[in-house]
Specification:
By secondary structure, this protein is α/β, with parallel strands linked by helices. The chain has two domains: about 5-200, Rossmann fold (3-Layer(aba) Sandwich), CATH 3.40.50; about 220-320, GMP Synthetase, Chain A, domain 3. The protein contains eleven helices and nine strands. The protein has helices at about 10-20, 50-60, 105-110, 135-145, 160-175, 190-200, 220-235, 240, 270-275, 280-295, 315-320; strands spanning about 35-45, 75-85, 85-90, 120-125, 150-155, 180, 245-255, 255-265, 300-310. The radius of gyration is 21 Å and the shape is globular. The N and C termini lie far apart (about 50 Å). Bound molecules: guanosine-5'-triphosphate (GTP). Guanosine-5'-triphosphate binds near residues 72, 155 and 186. The site of guanosine-5'-triphosphate has 24 residues, from α2. Belongs to the TRAFAC class TrmE-Era-EngA-EngB-Septin-like GTPase superfamily. Era GTPase family. InterPro entries: G_ERA_dom, GTP-bd, GTPase_Era-like, KH_dom-like_a/b, KH_dom_type_2, KH_sf_prok-type, P-loop_NTPase, Small_GTP-bd. An essential GTPase that binds both GDP and GTP, with rapid nucleotide exchange. Plays a role in 16S rRNA processing and 30S ribosomal subunit biogenesis and possibly also in cell cycle regulation and energy metabolism.
Length: about 325
Protein backbone atom coordinates (compact mmCIF):
# COMPACT_ATOMS: atom_id res chain seq x y z
CA UNK A 1 0.00 0.00 0.00
CA UNK A 2 1.47 3.35 -0.95
CA UNK A 3 1.53 6.21 1.54
CA UNK A 4 -1.09 8.10 -0.52
CA UNK A 5 -3.60 5.27 -0.11
CA UNK A 6 -3.92 6.23 3.53
CA UNK A 7 -4.65 9.83 2.87
CA UNK A 8 -8.33 10.04 3.73
CA UNK A 9 -8.02 8.22 7.02
CA UNK A 10 -8.05 9.77 10.46
CA UNK A 11 -4.50 9.58 11.93
CA UNK A 12 -5.69 7.29 14.72
CA UNK A 13 -7.11 4.83 12.19
CA UNK A 14 -3.99 5.19 10.10
CA UNK A 15 -1.94 4.34 13.18
CA UNK A 16 -3.86 1.10 13.62
CA UNK A 17 -3.49 0.14 9.98
CA UNK A 18 0.20 0.96 10.13
CA UNK A 19 0.59 -1.42 13.04
CA UNK A 20 -1.17 -4.26 11.22
CA UNK A 21 1.07 -3.83 8.21
CA UNK A 22 4.41 -3.04 9.77
CA UNK A 23 4.77 -4.01 13.41
CA UNK A 24 6.39 -7.42 13.52
CA UNK A 25 3.69 -9.60 15.00
CA UNK A 26 4.71 -11.57 18.01
CA UNK A 27 4.14 -15.27 17.56
CA UNK A 28 2.64 -17.09 20.47
CA UNK A 29 4.78 -20.13 21.18
CA UNK A 30 2.78 -23.19 22.01
CA UNK A 31 4.18 -24.26 25.32
CA UNK A 32 2.64 -26.25 28.10
CA UNK A 33 3.84 -24.07 30.95
CA UNK A 34 3.56 -20.37 30.62
CA UNK A 35 6.94 -18.97 31.71
CA UNK A 36 7.21 -15.87 33.84
CA UNK A 37 8.77 -12.88 32.09
CA UNK A 38 10.22 -9.84 33.78
CA UNK A 39 12.44 -6.91 32.95
CA UNK A 40 13.22 -3.23 33.00
CA UNK A 41 11.63 -0.92 30.48
CA UNK A 42 13.02 2.60 30.46
CA UNK A 43 10.87 5.36 29.01
CA UNK A 44 13.05 8.05 27.47
CA UNK A 45 12.59 11.13 25.31
CA UNK A 46 12.59 14.91 25.14
CA UNK A 47 10.52 16.99 27.61
CA UNK A 48 6.78 17.24 27.06
CA UNK A 49 6.49 14.24 24.72
CA UNK A 50 3.99 12.44 26.96
CA UNK A 51 6.23 9.97 28.84
CA UNK A 52 4.40 10.41 32.15
CA UNK A 53 1.02 10.36 30.42
CA UNK A 54 2.00 7.07 28.80
CA UNK A 55 3.02 5.58 32.15
CA UNK A 56 -0.26 6.64 33.74
CA UNK A 57 -2.25 5.28 30.81
CA UNK A 58 -0.57 1.87 31.01
CA UNK A 59 -1.36 1.69 34.74
CA UNK A 60 -4.85 3.13 34.38
CA UNK A 61 -4.16 5.48 37.28
CA UNK A 62 -2.24 8.63 37.94
CA UNK A 63 1.21 7.78 39.27
CA UNK A 64 3.27 10.50 37.62
CA UNK A 65 2.24 14.14 37.52
CA UNK A 66 1.41 15.61 34.12
CA UNK A 67 1.24 19.25 33.06
CA UNK A 68 1.39 21.05 29.70
CA UNK A 69 4.73 22.58 30.79
CA UNK A 70 8.02 20.98 29.77
CA UNK A 71 10.34 19.54 32.45
CA UNK A 72 7.58 18.69 34.89
CA UNK A 73 9.26 15.37 35.73
CA UNK A 74 12.39 15.91 37.83
CA UNK A 75 13.25 12.43 39.09
CA UNK A 76 13.39 8.94 37.71
CA UNK A 77 10.49 6.93 39.11
CA UNK A 78 9.90 3.22 38.96
CA UNK A 79 6.40 1.83 38.50
CA UNK A 80 5.85 -1.93 38.58
CA UNK A 81 3.31 -3.44 36.19
CA UNK A 82 2.18 -6.96 37.06
CA UNK A 83 0.26 -9.75 35.41
CA UNK A 84 0.24 -13.40 36.52
CA UNK A 85 3.11 -14.32 34.23
CA UNK A 86 4.68 -10.90 33.77
CA UNK A 87 6.38 -8.07 35.62
CA UNK A 88 7.43 -4.93 33.76
CA UNK A 89 9.50 -2.49 35.79
CA UNK A 90 8.85 0.79 34.01
CA UNK A 91 11.07 3.82 34.61
CA UNK A 92 9.60 7.23 33.92
CA UNK A 93 12.52 9.62 33.44
CA UNK A 94 12.91 13.40 33.23
CA UNK A 95 12.83 14.70 29.65
CA UNK A 96 16.27 15.01 28.08
CA UNK A 97 17.45 18.62 28.31
CA UNK A 98 19.92 19.33 25.53
CA UNK A 99 21.28 22.56 27.01
CA UNK A 100 21.14 22.88 30.79
CA UNK A 101 20.96 26.32 32.42
CA UNK A 102 21.24 25.56 36.11
CA UNK A 103 22.53 22.81 38.39
CA UNK A 104 19.11 21.30 39.08
CA UNK A 105 18.80 20.49 35.37
CA UNK A 106 22.27 18.91 35.43
CA UNK A 107 21.10 16.77 38.32
CA UNK A 108 17.94 15.79 36.42
CA UNK A 109 20.13 14.69 33.53
CA UNK A 110 22.37 12.73 35.92
CA UNK A 111 19.28 10.72 36.89
CA UNK A 112 18.73 9.76 33.24
CA UNK A 113 22.28 8.47 32.64
CA UNK A 114 21.84 5.06 34.30
CA UNK A 115 18.56 4.60 32.42
CA UNK A 116 20.64 4.17 29.25
CA UNK A 117 22.50 1.28 30.84
CA UNK A 118 20.08 -0.72 32.95
CA UNK A 119 17.26 -1.40 30.48
CA UNK A 120 16.03 -4.62 28.90
CA UNK A 121 13.91 -2.53 26.56
CA UNK A 122 13.90 1.15 25.62
CA UNK A 123 10.65 2.95 24.89
CA UNK A 124 11.57 6.22 23.18
CA UNK A 125 8.64 8.67 23.18
CA UNK A 126 8.46 11.43 20.60
CA UNK A 127 5.66 13.21 18.79
CA UNK A 128 5.26 13.70 15.08
CA UNK A 129 5.88 17.44 15.13
CA UNK A 130 9.01 17.91 17.24
CA UNK A 131 12.32 18.02 15.35
CA UNK A 132 15.07 15.56 16.24
CA UNK A 133 18.04 17.92 15.78
CA UNK A 134 20.72 17.47 18.40
CA UNK A 135 19.62 13.94 19.32
CA UNK A 136 22.14 12.19 17.03
CA UNK A 137 24.60 11.26 19.80
CA UNK A 138 21.90 9.91 22.13
CA UNK A 139 20.25 7.92 19.37
CA UNK A 140 23.60 6.48 18.33
CA UNK A 141 24.06 5.33 21.91
CA UNK A 142 20.67 3.60 21.81
CA UNK A 143 21.44 2.04 18.43
CA UNK A 144 24.85 0.77 19.57
CA UNK A 145 23.43 -0.67 22.78
CA UNK A 146 21.57 -3.38 20.83
CA UNK A 147 18.82 -3.14 23.44
CA UNK A 148 15.42 -3.70 21.78
CA UNK A 149 13.87 -0.30 21.20
CA UNK A 150 10.31 0.74 20.55
CA UNK A 151 9.94 4.24 19.16
CA UNK A 152 6.55 5.44 20.19
CA UNK A 153 5.17 8.29 18.11
CA UNK A 154 2.77 9.82 20.59
CA UNK A 155 -0.07 12.34 20.25
CA UNK A 156 -1.31 10.96 16.91
CA UNK A 157 -4.63 12.58 17.82
CA UNK A 158 -2.95 15.96 17.25
CA UNK A 159 -1.07 15.46 14.00
CA UNK A 160 -2.04 15.21 10.38
CA UNK A 161 -1.60 12.01 8.50
CA UNK A 162 1.17 13.53 6.45
CA UNK A 163 3.10 14.51 9.60
CA UNK A 164 2.69 11.04 11.01
CA UNK A 165 3.84 9.35 7.83
CA UNK A 166 6.87 11.62 7.59
CA UNK A 167 7.72 11.01 11.21
CA UNK A 168 7.53 7.22 10.80
CA UNK A 169 9.86 7.37 7.81
CA UNK A 170 12.21 9.70 9.65
CA UNK A 171 12.44 7.39 12.67
CA UNK A 172 13.02 4.39 10.41
CA UNK A 173 16.07 6.20 9.06
CA UNK A 174 17.25 7.37 12.50
CA UNK A 175 16.93 4.01 14.27
CA UNK A 176 16.67 1.31 11.59
CA UNK A 177 16.72 -1.53 14.14
CA UNK A 178 13.93 -0.08 16.25
CA UNK A 179 10.26 -0.83 15.81
CA UNK A 180 7.85 2.06 15.51
CA UNK A 181 4.43 2.34 17.05
CA UNK A 182 2.10 5.33 16.64
CA UNK A 183 0.02 5.86 19.78
CA UNK A 184 -2.08 8.35 21.64
CA UNK A 185 -1.33 8.02 25.34
CA UNK A 186 -4.11 10.46 26.11
CA UNK A 187 -6.73 8.49 24.17
CA UNK A 188 -5.33 5.05 25.04
CA UNK A 189 -4.68 4.18 21.40
CA UNK A 190 -2.41 1.17 20.73
CA UNK A 191 -1.32 0.78 24.36
CA UNK A 192 -2.30 -2.91 24.27
CA UNK A 193 0.11 -3.36 21.37
CA UNK A 194 2.83 -1.52 23.23
CA UNK A 195 2.49 -3.93 26.16
CA UNK A 196 2.43 -6.95 23.86
CA UNK A 197 5.55 -5.82 22.03
CA UNK A 198 7.45 -5.03 25.20
CA UNK A 199 6.46 -8.38 26.70
CA UNK A 200 7.72 -10.25 23.63
CA UNK A 201 11.18 -8.72 24.15
CA UNK A 202 11.50 -9.38 27.88
CA UNK A 203 13.56 -12.30 29.13
CA UNK A 204 12.14 -15.20 31.08
CA UNK A 205 12.82 -14.22 34.67
CA UNK A 206 11.17 -14.25 38.07
CA UNK A 207 9.64 -11.04 39.44
CA UNK A 208 12.15 -8.46 40.69
CA UNK A 209 9.69 -6.71 43.00
CA UNK A 210 6.96 -7.96 45.27
CA UNK A 211 3.82 -8.13 43.14
CA UNK A 212 1.96 -5.94 45.64
CA UNK A 213 4.50 -3.13 45.19
CA UNK A 214 3.62 -0.37 42.77
CA UNK A 215 6.59 1.96 42.97
CA UNK A 216 10.01 2.49 44.51
CA UNK A 217 8.86 5.82 45.89
CA UNK A 218 7.26 6.31 49.33
CA UNK A 219 3.81 7.82 49.81
CA UNK A 220 5.36 11.18 50.80
CA UNK A 221 6.96 11.49 47.38
CA UNK A 222 3.55 11.29 45.68
CA UNK A 223 2.16 13.90 48.08
CA UNK A 224 4.96 16.36 47.25
CA UNK A 225 4.53 15.63 43.53
CA UNK A 226 0.80 16.40 43.68
CA UNK A 227 1.54 19.76 45.34
CA UNK A 228 4.24 20.46 42.76
CA UNK A 229 1.80 19.67 39.95
CA UNK A 230 -0.69 22.21 41.31
CA UNK A 231 2.11 24.82 41.41
CA UNK A 232 2.95 24.05 37.78
CA UNK A 233 -0.70 24.42 36.83
CA UNK A 234 -1.32 27.60 38.86
CA UNK A 235 1.73 29.75 38.09
CA UNK A 236 3.45 30.91 34.95
CA UNK A 237 6.95 31.50 33.64
CA UNK A 238 9.84 30.81 36.03
CA UNK A 239 7.82 30.29 39.25
CA UNK A 240 7.09 26.54 38.90
CA UNK A 241 10.70 25.88 37.95
CA UNK A 242 11.96 27.77 41.02
CA UNK A 243 9.84 25.76 43.47
CA UNK A 244 10.52 22.57 45.34
CA UNK A 245 8.18 20.89 47.81
CA UNK A 246 9.26 19.14 51.00
CA UNK A 247 7.23 17.50 53.73
CA UNK A 248 8.03 18.99 57.12
CA UNK A 249 5.77 16.73 59.13
CA UNK A 250 3.39 13.91 58.32
CA UNK A 251 1.18 12.58 61.10
CA UNK A 252 -0.95 9.57 60.24
CA UNK A 253 -4.06 9.37 62.33
CA UNK A 254 -7.19 7.26 62.09
CA UNK A 255 -9.30 8.71 59.33
CA UNK A 256 -7.15 11.82 58.84
CA UNK A 257 -3.53 12.53 57.88
CA UNK A 258 -2.09 15.86 59.03
CA UNK A 259 0.54 17.02 56.55
CA UNK A 260 2.71 20.11 56.80
CA UNK A 261 4.58 20.89 53.58
CA UNK A 262 7.02 23.64 52.66
CA UNK A 263 7.08 25.19 49.22
CA UNK A 264 10.68 26.24 48.73
CA UNK A 265 11.36 29.23 46.47
CA UNK A 266 14.51 31.12 45.56
CA UNK A 267 13.51 34.72 46.26
CA UNK A 268 11.17 36.82 48.43
CA UNK A 269 9.39 38.10 45.32
CA UNK A 270 8.47 34.52 44.38
CA UNK A 271 7.19 33.90 47.91
CA UNK A 272 4.86 36.89 47.60
CA UNK A 273 3.51 35.67 44.24
CA UNK A 274 2.77 32.20 45.61
CA UNK A 275 1.02 33.55 48.70
CA UNK A 276 -0.95 36.09 46.66
CA UNK A 277 -2.99 39.06 47.87
CA UNK A 278 -4.37 38.28 51.32
CA UNK A 279 -3.18 34.66 50.97
CA UNK A 280 -5.72 33.97 48.21
CA UNK A 281 -3.34 32.11 45.86
CA UNK A 282 -1.89 29.72 48.39
CA UNK A 283 -5.35 29.05 49.79
CA UNK A 284 -6.61 27.83 46.39
CA UNK A 285 -3.41 25.91 45.77
CA UNK A 286 -3.88 24.15 49.11
CA UNK A 287 -7.50 23.27 48.36
CA UNK A 288 -6.65 21.81 44.92
CA UNK A 289 -3.72 19.84 46.28
CA UNK A 290 -5.64 18.55 49.30
CA UNK A 291 -8.50 17.25 47.16
CA UNK A 292 -6.15 15.28 44.96
CA UNK A 293 -4.06 13.98 47.86
CA UNK A 294 -7.27 12.78 49.54
CA UNK A 295 -8.32 10.97 46.38
CA UNK A 296 -4.86 9.41 46.08
CA UNK A 297 -4.64 8.32 49.73
CA UNK A 298 -8.34 7.47 49.96
CA UNK A 299 -8.34 9.31 53.24
CA UNK A 300 -9.17 12.72 54.66
CA UNK A 301 -6.22 15.09 54.83
CA UNK A 302 -5.39 18.28 56.70
CA UNK A 303 -2.84 20.10 54.55
CA UNK A 304 -0.85 23.04 55.87
CA UNK A 305 1.26 24.76 53.17
CA UNK A 306 3.99 27.26 53.99
CA UNK A 307 6.37 29.10 51.69
CA UNK A 308 10.08 29.33 52.58
CA UNK A 309 12.86 31.14 50.77
CA UNK A 310 16.08 29.19 50.23
CA UNK A 311 18.25 31.48 48.14
CA UNK A 312 19.53 30.02 44.87
CA UNK A 313 18.74 26.43 45.87
CA UNK A 314 18.60 25.35 42.20
CA UNK A 315 22.27 26.20 41.73
CA UNK A 316 23.68 24.94 45.00
CA UNK A 317 24.87 21.29 45.03
CA UNK A 318 24.53 20.89 48.82
CA UNK A 319 20.96 22.23 48.79
CA UNK A 320 20.04 20.10 45.79
CA UNK A 321 21.29 17.03 47.62
CA UNK A 322 19.17 17.96 50.62
CA UNK A 323 16.11 18.13 48.35
CA UNK A 324 16.76 14.65 46.98
CA UNK A 325 18.57 15.44 43.74
CA UNK A 326 21.37 13.30 42.38
CA UNK A 327 24.88 14.76 42.60
N1 LIG B 1 -3.28 15.45 22.64
C1 LIG B 1 -2.46 14.70 23.34
N2 LIG B 1 -1.76 15.24 24.37
C2 LIG B 1 -0.92 14.43 25.07
C3 LIG B 1 -0.75 13.05 24.75
N3 LIG B 1 0.14 12.54 25.61
C4 LIG B 1 0.52 13.55 26.44
N4 LIG B 1 -0.13 14.68 26.11
C5 LIG B 1 0.01 16.01 26.76
O1 LIG B 1 1.35 16.45 26.64
C6 LIG B 1 1.73 17.24 27.79
C7 LIG B 1 3.00 16.67 28.38
O2 LIG B 1 2.74 15.38 28.88
P1 LIG B 1 3.68 14.67 29.94
O3 LIG B 1 3.20 13.28 30.11
O4 LIG B 1 3.85 15.51 31.16
O5 LIG B 1 5.06 14.69 29.14
P2 LIG B 1 6.51 14.23 29.64
O6 LIG B 1 7.22 13.70 28.45
O7 LIG B 1 6.42 13.33 30.83
O8 LIG B 1 7.11 15.65 30.05
P3 LIG B 1 8.41 16.08 30.95
O9 LIG B 1 7.96 16.12 32.37
O10 LIG B 1 8.75 17.41 30.41
O11 LIG B 1 9.49 15.05 30.72
C8 LIG B 1 0.53 17.19 28.74
O12 LIG B 1 -0.23 18.36 28.56
C9 LIG B 1 -0.26 15.96 28.27
O13 LIG B 1 -1.65 16.04 28.53
C10 LIG B 1 -1.51 12.51 23.64
O14 LIG B 1 -1.45 11.33 23.29
N5 LIG B 1 -2.33 13.39 22.99
Amino acid sequence: MSPTSYQLLHPAMWAQIYVLLHLKQTTTKKIFFSMHKAGFVNILGLPNMGKSTLLNAVFGEKLAIVTPKAQTTRHRMIAVYNEDDLQIVFSDTPGIIQKTHYKMQESMMAEIKPAFEDADVFVWVHDAKTPTEGLEEILKKIDNSKIPTLVVINKVDLCTQEQLLKSVEHWHSLLPKAEILPISALEGLNLDLLLKKVKSWLPEAPAYYDKEELSDRPMRYFVTEIIREKIFLSFQQEIPYSCEVVINSYKEKDGLDAIEAYIIVERDSQKNIIIGKGGEKIKHLGIDARKEIEAFLQKRVFLNLQVKVDKDWRNNPAKLKRYGFTE
